[in-house]
Amino acid sequence: MKKIRSQISKNRIAIISISGVLLLFLLYNIFSVNIVQALSKYGSRGEEVRTIQTKLKRWGYYNGNVDGIFGSQTLAAVKYFQRKNGLVVDGIAGKRTLEAMGIFTSSGNSGSSSSSSDLNLLSRLVYGEARGEPYSGQVAVAAVVLNRVKSSSFPNSISGVIYQKGAFNVVDDGQINLTPNSTARKAAQDALNGWDPSYGSIYYFNPSTATNKWIWSRPHVVTIGKHRFCK
Length: 231
Hints:
By secondary structure, the chain is mainly alpha-helical. It has helices at residues 2-36, 47-58, 72-84, 95-100, 110-130, 135-150, 158-162, 169-173, 182-192, 213-216, and strands at 203-205, 220-224, 227-230.
């Protein structure tokens, strides 16, 4: 009888232990999902909201206070950003909207995620702005973006430069969302690796279509294909 009771006790302990492990596993997965799927929406508060407000204000989409409170002004600014950049206009800063802003919520690989996202976004910009141009001209377009990131006169991130209000026509007309080809990706990577055929240029334009008189006043550096690069 004592042996039977002892065995029953051991079985109960084993069951309790297994149940505990399963419970911990379940809780871990629940909280992990919540972290990965984190998003900001109307009524949210915190550092992520502050980051969103800071970026949108820098790019000209938001004129309110950077207070970390997702109110009506922030909601309108997020919708404006989504509308201008071909995203679902729901006012919720979900995964795709956050990535378009250069904000990454996944834990553990933020550096590699950021690097991969920068390459993808820069590739899309190159494809939209310069597909059909000579290869060096495509690299030069990517280099202009990177030169702006380095300049104190522009946002300090690739996404910030590309999504700055009025900076690139392909953002306004939605071509930024086209899937880039392998050539555009290679050109973007070469620019990220340090090649700059634009020689430090921070502007470029097509002389045959440009109507802005101001852009013609910029010091000319080099012409590649249809694009004139300048400082």
